[in-house]
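in:
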C-alpha cells in the first residue's frame, strides 16, 4: 500500500465521495468539513482544492447525484467541547437536515424538520436516500439513534430506531443496509431483525466505511488512525495504518480505475491510500455503486450474531 497527502487545510474532513469522469464536476473528489460547514472539491492529481459550497453548521456525510450535485447530511453543527477530541473549533449551530448542494454552490434543504444530528448517508438504486440520525454528544443514556429514509416523493420515515450511536452506513452486495453502531458493524435485515457483523472493531470503533466488490468492509479507524478491513463474516483481515497524527473519519473508493481509497482526517489532511491487491470500485453517478440496489436476500452468514435490540421498522 502507498499513502500520500494530497491536500491539507480541510478542518475535520469527512464524507468523501468520488465524482467520476463524465459526471459534471468530475473527475474529482468532494469532501465535507464538519468544522467549517462547507464542501470542498479536490483535484488529487493537481494537489488542489476549492470551496464548492457553504452549508453552515456541520456538513457531515455526502453522496453523489446523477447530475453532479451533492447530497449532504447536515448535523446541525457540532459542539467540539463535548467531544473526546483535543480540538478547538467554533460551534456553528444550524438546522439539522438533509441538504442538496448544486454545482454552482447553491444549497437548499430537502428535509429541515424532526431530525437530531444526521451523520452519514447512502443512495439506493431507486433514488431513496438512507441516512443515520444519531443524537448529539454527549450520548444520552437511552438509545435514541435512528436510520431514516427519504424517498423521491419527499416522504421521510423511520427505518429503524433504538441505536446507541449509529454512524456510517452502506449497502451490502445484496442490498441489505449495514451501519456502524456503537463500536461495531451491524446489519439491518429485511425481516426487521438485526445482526452483528462484528461487535467490536477495535479501539474507538469505526466511523465511515465503504465496501469493495468482494463485500469486504473498509472501516475508518478513528483512534487507531487508519482503515481496518473486515470480511463479510466479521473477520478482521487487514489494517492500513496512516503515518502522523490525526483521526481517520471516513473513506471511499475512486480514481480513474476505482482502486484509490481517500480517507479524510480531522487534522485537515486528505490522504490517498492505493492498493492493487483487490478489485476496488468507487461510487457510480447515482451516488451508489452498481451493486447497491436491492437484490436477493443473503442466506445464513457465518460468524454473525442476531439481536432483537431496537427492531428495524423497514417493510
Amino acid at each position: 500500500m502507498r499513502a500520500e497527502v494530497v491536500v491539507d487545510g480541510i478542518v475535520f474532513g469527512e464524507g468523501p465521495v468520488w465524482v467520476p469522469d463524465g459526471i459534471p464536476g468530475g473527475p474529482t473528489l468532494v469532501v465535507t468539513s464538519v468544522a467549517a460547514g462547507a464542501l470542498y472539491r479536490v483535484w488529487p492529481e493537481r494537489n488542489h482544492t476549492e470551496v464548492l459550497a457553504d452549508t453552515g453548521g456541520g456538513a457531515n456525510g455526502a453522496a453523489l447525484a446523477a447530475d453532479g450535485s451533492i447530497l449532504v447530511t447536515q448535523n446541525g453543527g457540532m459542539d467540539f467541547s463535548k467531544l473526546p477530541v483535543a480540538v478547538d473549533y467554533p460551534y456553528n449551530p444550524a438546522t439539522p437536515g438533509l441538504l442538496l448542494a448544486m454545482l454552482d454552490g447553491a444549497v437548499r434543504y430537502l428535509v429541515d424538520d424532526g431530525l437530531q444530528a444526521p451523520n452519514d448517508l447512502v443512495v439506493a438504486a431507486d433514488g431513496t436516500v438512507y441516512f443515520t440520525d444519531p443524537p448529539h454528544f454527549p450520548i444520552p443514556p437511552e438509545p435514541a439513534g435512528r436510520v431514516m429514509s427519504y424517498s423521491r416523493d419527499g416522504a421521510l420515515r423511520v427505518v429503524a430506531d433504538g441505536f446507541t450511536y449509529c454512524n456510517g452506513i452502506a449497502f451490502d452486495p445484496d442490498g441489505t443496509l449495514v451501519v456502524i453502531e456503537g463500536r461495531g458493524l451491524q446489519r439491518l435485515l429485511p425481516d426487521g431483525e438485526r445482526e452483528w457483523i462484528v461487535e467490536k472493531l477495535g479501539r474507538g470503533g469505526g466511523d465511515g466505511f465503504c465496501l469493495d466488490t468482494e463485500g469486504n468492509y473498509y472501516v475508518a479507524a478513528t483512534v487507531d488512525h487508519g482503515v481496518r478491513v473486515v470480511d463479510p463474516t466479521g473477520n478482521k483481515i487487514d489494517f492500513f495504518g496512516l503515518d502522523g497524527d490525526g483521526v481517520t473519519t471516513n473513506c471511499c473508493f475512486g480514481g480513474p480505475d476505482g482502486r484509490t481509497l481517500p480517507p479524510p482526517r480531522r487534522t485537515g489532511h486528505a490522504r490517498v491510500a492505493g492498493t492493487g491487491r483487490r478489485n476496488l470500485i468507487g461510487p457510480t453517478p447515482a451516488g451508489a455503486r452498481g451493486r447497491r440496489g436491492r437484490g436477493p436476500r443473503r442466506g445464513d452468514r457465518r460468524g454473525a450474531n442476531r439481536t432483537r435490540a431496537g427492531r428495524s421498522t423497514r417493510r
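note: DSSP finds no helices and 24 strands in the chain.
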